[in-house]
Amino acid sequence: MSDFLIIGGGVIGMMTALQLADAGRQVILVERNACGQEASWAGGGIVSPLYPWRYQPPISRLSRWSEGAYPSLALRLLEDTGIDPEYRQRGLLYLQVDDEAQALAWAHETGKPLERRDGRFVYAKEPNLVAGVEEALWMPTLGSIRNPRLIQALRARLLSMPGVTLREQCEVTGFEQRGARITGVTTPHGVVHGDEIIVCGGAWASLLLTELGIQLPVKPIKGQMLAYQAPKGLVERVVLMNGRYVIPRADGLLLVGSTLEDTGFEKSLSAVAEESLSQSAQAMVPALKDLPVAHHWAGLRPGSPDGMPFIGKVPQWDNLYVNAGHFRNGLVLAPASTHLLVDQLLGREPIIDPAPYQLTPERLGG
User: Fold this and answer.
1) Peptide bond before 63: cis, by omega within 30 degrees of 0?
2) Number of C-alpha atoms within 13 angstroms, CB side, residue 211?
């Protein structure tokens, strides 16, 4: 019997386990595949919503807290595991922003560095961008993290912690109940018990909770992405135009994303999506026309009706909690959303007001 049983080994589940173990608690994490191989692996790793001024204030509060946490988290994981999550704070260039006035007003209100810069500045930063850019918005503080390496580092750290047990390739098929308490989860390998149960199942969270008669409005939204193995230095910072982005890695790998597809639990790849993503990338960086696509993949985001995650206790259950529904911002919001839930689990003063994220009847459609 562990203090906490976490269902789901993505970035949300693993960060939750790390924080609980740091607090001296015994944790079992159950993952149906290998940890971090779904949406946490498939995303781009930008440590901000793409257009943060278009989001509700509760999402912005989580985002700002997480953005401040990532540099120290990346350094800690590098020291603890020897695996570098490659946090890079090189800024972001926004091209062709239609709601520029709203963006600048948001930046002024929140104290976020964001400014309009001319083409001379843009090409000094990124000389290989498409010709003809006369101005752009520049966010110098934006960072990105290499999410597959973040996942590797988190998993390695958890494996080294005596208070944590990882049970991978162990799918949860149901729940054992006693009154208003969940006493354990059933798996093909037997029942796993825990005092407090936390569902961090991403796009699969709603399927898990359906077993208990809970209708969590979270569904999978597929995103396809590409990567080019470009020469190092072709692009040095994140560039965003018309909702599509390119994200450089330190070794020259250049990610391009992404599509939004409501196709259920399937991750098939399409030539149409590849062509669309390639055109978007080449519209920003013409030199990519001469490079082949190195990788093409898809992941399933946990979509929620308004993009607002569900974080907190499940009504009518004494020991059941959820952290899911982050949509496009799971990696972005992970440090804050997990800290917020762990604060509630351990009876600590929460980092921000937890009310907007709670599983109220209104949010659950009841």
Assistant:
1) no
2) 15
**What single-letter amino acid sits at 235?**
V
Please choose, from the candidates 3, 49, 22, 13, the residue with its C-alpha nearest in 3D space to the C-alpha of residue 308. 49
The rounded distance, in Å, linking the Cα atoms of 105 and 94 is: 16
- The residue written with tokens 């597929």 in the block is 222
Gap between the terminal Cα atoms of the chain: 33
User: Quick one: 34 exposed, middle or buried, by C-beta within 10 A (0-12, 13-18, 19+)?
Assistant: middle
Of 308, 335, 336, which is closest to residue 324 (Cα–Cα)? 308
pLDDT (tens digit per residue) in 33-85: 999 999 999 999 999 999 999 999 999 999 999 999 999 999 999 999 999 99
292-312 b/e (C-beta count within 10 Å ≥ 16 → b): eeeebebbbbbbbeebbbbbb
Q: Residue 101, SS3?
A: helix
Tokens of 100: 């520029």
Q: What is d(CA 178, CA 229) in angstroms, rounded to the nearest whole number?
A: 54
User: CA 112: distance to chain centroid?
Assistant: 21
Residue entry with tokens 């995303």: 43
Round to whole Å and give the CA distance between 278 and 273: 8
Three-class secondary structure of residue 341 per DSSP: helix
Whole-prediction pTM: 0.95
* 299 within 8 A of 223, measured Cβ to Cβ: yes
Tell me the two tokens of residue 112: 């976020």
- Tens of pLDDT, residue by residue over 306-347, are 889 999 999 999 999 999 999 999 999 999 999 999 999 999
Asked whether the beta carbons of 169 and 34 are under 8 A apart, the reply is yes
List pLDDT tens digits, range 267-290: 999 999 999 999 999 999 999 999
